[in-house]
Specification:
Number of domains: 2
Number of strands: 10
Distance between the termini: 54 Å
Order of helices and strands: HHHEHEHEHEHEEEHHHEHEHEH
Number of helices: 13
Helix content: 25-40%
CATH superfamily of the largest domain: Type I PLP-dependent aspartate aminotransferase-like (Major domain)
Radius of gyration: 23 Å
CATH topology of the largest domain: Aspartate Aminotransferase, domain 2
Shape: globular
Bound molecules: pyridoxal-5'-phosphate
CATH architecture of the largest domain: 3-Layer(aba) Sandwich
Strand order of the largest sheet: 1-7-6-5-4-2-3
């Protein structure tokens, strides 16, 4: 892979030992940490009260290694701990990847439309961005392959893709990975992984041994409902992880966020429930689209891209007037569509009613 030259002789930040580590190593009960210039008086009492049941030392830096979460996640995924990297949301991992691999003289390949942060950070780093249009809402992996040249450093695949919700055809994905040169990092962004129900889905974590140039990105922001706390993670070969760790800032996830992710990770039943309810509610949107003759993309995520019988911006504004905030396709590169997050049953009752009124107002025939 084409890591920036500066990374060659560098190492990731090595965190000092935590109080817990030293207690364990030396069998001590009392350990005083005077190594990181933290505040010996703790924090502001009102802050402490706010989180009174959390066993966090407020004045102590977070565990930059995310040790507890790492062990739990490694066990859950059945991978070694050195195959994981944690970020302040998967957003931060995108920044880290761009910073570690992209720059003037390199190029990167993404779909369009897709999650805009890939192109955004590639541009900031000075790389050329090659955008391959979706075909019927799907990644055109042949187009991606054709776009590869000697300067290509990173390929971004978003599956399920934001904003279409479409899953990349899994057979095509494997065929593509077999062809991509090993010195190009392939990022598979699976922010909506937990919502996938397609029986053909191939667990990408199982691919990282075979394809050592692949990193899979996932997040606690969506199905785990922890967007406010910013925890994402990447799974890949240790060489990838080590190089990205050089770029990662040492204490990138707060102690509170780490603890909440550790707790959330235990609750598979919540994820199962969300996946099931999401599917049930998605069916309502599909029926609605069919009855009203509106095109809708096949989604494996918790949102849908649905056609509107007027300009997307007008539809978005009218729905806003009814109290529903959706994303206009005009802003997402898909004019004539809106992207709607699938809400709860009662939220969807209201939304579909407002959407019906919109259609009637536009005089669209049923
Ligand atoms: C495809 C995709 N990737 C990554 C993210 C970033 O998620 P987070 O930084 O909250 O983990 C999002 C958020 O909308 C997304 O849709």
């Amino acid at each position: 892979m084409q890591w920036r030259k500066a990374l060659k002789d560098m190492k990731p930040y090595t965190p000092g030992k935590s109080i817990e580590d030293v207690k364990k190593m030396y069998g001590l009960t009392d350990v005083v940490k005077l190594a990181s210039n933290e505040n010996p008086y703790g924090t502001v009492p009102a802050v402490q009260d706010y989180f009174e049941n959390m066993s966090i030392n407020f004045e102590v830096y977070p565990d930059g290694y995310a040790g507890i979460l790492r062990t739990k996640m490694a066990e859950k995924l059945g991978v070694a701990e050195n195959r994981l990297i944690f970020g302040s949301g998967s957003d931060e991992l995108i920044v880290i990847i761009a910073r570690a691999l992209l720059g003037p003289g390199t190029n990167t390949i993404t779909a369009t439309p897709t999650f805009p942060q890939y192109a955004h950070h590639a541009e900031i780093e000075g790389a050329e961005v090659k955008e391959i249009p979706l075909v019927n809402g799907h990644h055109d992996l042949n187009g991606f392959y054709q776009a590869i040249d000697a300067d290509t450093s990173v390929i971004w695949l978003c599956s399920p893709n934001n904003p279409t919700g479409t899953l990349i055809n899994q057979e095509d994905l494997i065929g593509f990975l077999e062809k991509v040169p090993e010195n190009i990092l392939v990022v598979i962004d699976e922010a909506y992984f937990e919502y996938i129900v397609d029986p053909n889905y191939v667990n990408t974590v199982d691919l990282i041994d075979q394809f050592q140039n692949v990193i899979v990105l996932r997040t606690f922001s969506k199905a785990y409902g922890l967007a406010a706390f910013r925890v994402g993670y990447g799974i890949g070969h240790p060489t990838i992880i080590t190089n990205l760790d050089i770029v990662r800032s040492p204490f990138n996830i707060t102690s509170t966020s780490l603890q909440l992710a550790e707790i959330a990770l235990e609750d598979d039943s919540f994820i199962t429930m969300c996946r099931k309810l999401n599917r049930e509610q998605m069916e309502r949107f599909k029926e609605f689209a069919e009855v009203n003759n509106l095109h809708i993309f096949d989604s494996e995520a918790n949102f849908l891209l649905i056609e509107v019988p007027m300009s997307a911006t007008d539809a978005t504004e009218k729905l806003l007037g009814q109290g529903f905030i959706v994303r206009s396709g005009d802003a997402l590169g898909v004019p004539g569509y809106i992207r709607v997050t699938i809400g709860t049953e009662s939220q969807n009752d209201g939304f579909l009613e407002a959407f019906s009124a919109l259609i009637e107002g536009a005089g669209l025939e049923k």
